[in-house]
Design the sequence.
């Protein structure tokens, strides 16, 4: 009863009626997922997958308390926020309580993209300026306004051109970025300052062209750029530059918020800063579309003073708010932040041990249940192991473990599981990854292994890449 038609039919209908730009995971052999429980998802044949990617199903897929809250409120009323409703104000009060002092005014919307779009609108109205500083490889949403500040999409061959009011700062990536360990022989604080000074330079550039800076927007830990943990002092020095130039600071917490980092509810807190505007989404509804912008009374007043009403049909409807309140209940009651800290530290330590065991593991980084493992073909040169990362993802799927990859070279394995992830799940993930990486280590030394490892790939170009790697390895032998 979990599917209306056989998988082959679903594929046919999807190809016919869904825009081809909407891409599937595992394109040549997609998964049909029909239900989820906690950190597990099930396909149409009942096969169970360990979900290590889904930061939206924050408190676990289909958490009964969240499902119940949505079902109850749906059976009472779902309407717009022009009527008073307790769920809306309770949610605002609870969210604000988790934020530092000045952030006390909320706007509710339906997605991370909408939240960032509204944040930009607030910043423009408040500063009366237009120029935005964003980080290279950043992604802030699919709306036209957000694609323009998302080098993740701007950098693609078919992507739109970068508008002149957008300034791109280097990613504060101390492994692969402009300033790195140990090449630049600097302390973490110094590297943080050097990266922040890059933003300072862009502030002066924007001032010199007579327009000035409106806003700096960044994820507090950049997930789309490849699970980047900025060096200490990066955001505090950056915010200083931006504020001195008269701009406001927007923290995009759409992926990394709601306790994922383990030590704090919000990832910006790990950098000791207080943004002017915070955007939250994804985990907030555990799969239901709800997001928010939280800002200061001054910025909210500038917006209200325009006299233009802000109306959003679904933003802050009672069903979405009841669901978001239930998500907050679960985070508190099941102490999921502490769990992210405990399980995340275990996962990180176990991944760290892989670095010493495998030729492909170049860097391991993370905070809480936000972890990245960067694969390289040469540890000295830090050459991205893009084809190998793709191979690892496919092999893990065969082992019924779902992970993804990211970063400008698509060579960073990305773990951001539901927060109910356990130490046993982390062990299973790392033990399996250990085995899969060992298979690839083998490609260096054994002819026979080379043949075996090349065959499972489903993509011709990757076969070619691996084959050429294999030939090089054979030459070396
Ligand atoms: N910001 C970040 C950091 C994101 O990762 C995303 C989605 N991947 C968005 C914004 C946009 O959110 P949505 O897809 O809900 O519009």
Sequence:
């Amino acid at each position: 009863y979990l599917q209306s038609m056989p998988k082959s039919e679903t594929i046919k209908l999807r190809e016919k009626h869904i825009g081809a730009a909407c891409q599937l995971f595992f394109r040549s052999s997609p998964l049909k997922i029909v239900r989820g429980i906690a950190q597990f998802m099930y396909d149409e044949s009942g096969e169970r997958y360990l979900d290590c990617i889904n930061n939206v199903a924050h408190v676990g897929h289909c958490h009964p308390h969240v499902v119940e809250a949505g079902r109850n409120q749906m059976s009472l009323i779902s309407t717009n926020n022009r009527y008073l409703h307790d769920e809306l104000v309770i949610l605002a009060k609870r969210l604000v309580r988790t934020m530092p002092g000045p952030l006390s005014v909320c706007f509710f919307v339906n997605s991370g993209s909408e939240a960032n779009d509204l944040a930009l609108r607030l910043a423009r109205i408040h500063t009366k300026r237009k120029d935005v500083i964003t980080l290279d490889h950043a992604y802030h949403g699919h709306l036209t306004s957000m694609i323009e500040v998302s080098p993740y999409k701007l950098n693609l061959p078919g992507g739109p051109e970068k508008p002149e009011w957008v300034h791109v700062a280097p990613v504060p990536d101390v492994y692969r970025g402009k300033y790195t360990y140990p090449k630049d022989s600097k302390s973490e604080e110094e590297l943080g300052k050097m990266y922040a000074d890059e933003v300072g330079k862009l502030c002066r550039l924007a001032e010199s062209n007579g327009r000035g800076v409106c806003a700096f927007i960044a994820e507090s830990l950049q997930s789309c750029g490849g699970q980047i943990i900025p060096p200490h002092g990066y955001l505090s020095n950056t915010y200083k530059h931006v504020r001195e130039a008269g701009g406001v600071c927007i923290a995009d917490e759409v992926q990394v918020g709601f306790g994922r980092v383990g030590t704090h509810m919000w990832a910006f807190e790990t950098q000791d800063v207080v943004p002017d505007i915070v955007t939250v989404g994804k985990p907030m509804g555990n799969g239901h579309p709800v997001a928010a912008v939280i800002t200061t009374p001054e910025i909210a007043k500038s917006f209200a003073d325009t006299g233009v009403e802000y109306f959003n049909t679904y933003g802050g409807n009672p069903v979405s708010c009841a669901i978001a309140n239930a998500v907050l209940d679960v985070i508190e009651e099941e102490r999921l932040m502490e769990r992210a800290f405990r399980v995340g530290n275990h996962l990180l330590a176990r991944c760290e041990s892989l670095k010493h065991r495998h030729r492909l593991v170049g860097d391991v980084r993370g905070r809480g249940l936000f972890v990245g493992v960067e694969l390289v073909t040469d540890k000295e040169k830090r050459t991205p192991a893009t084809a190998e990362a793709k191979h690892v993802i496919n092999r893990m799927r065969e082992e019924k473990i779902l992970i993804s990859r990211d970063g400008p070279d698509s060579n960073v394995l990305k773990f951001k599981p539901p927060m109910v992830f356990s130490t046993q799940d982390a062990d299973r993930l790392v033990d399996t990854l250990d085995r899969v990486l060992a298979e690839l280590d083998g490609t260096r030394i054994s002819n026979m292994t080379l043949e075996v490892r090349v065959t499972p790939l489903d993509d011709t170009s990757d076969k070619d890449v691996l084959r050429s790697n294999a030939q090089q390895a054979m030459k070396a032998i």
Summary: The longest strand covers residues 370-378. The pocket of 4'-deoxy-4'-aminopyridoxal-5'-phosphate is lined by residues 111-113, 116, 139-142, 219, 223-224, 252, 254-255, 281-282 (CB under 6 Å). DSSP finds 15 helices and 16 strands in the chain.
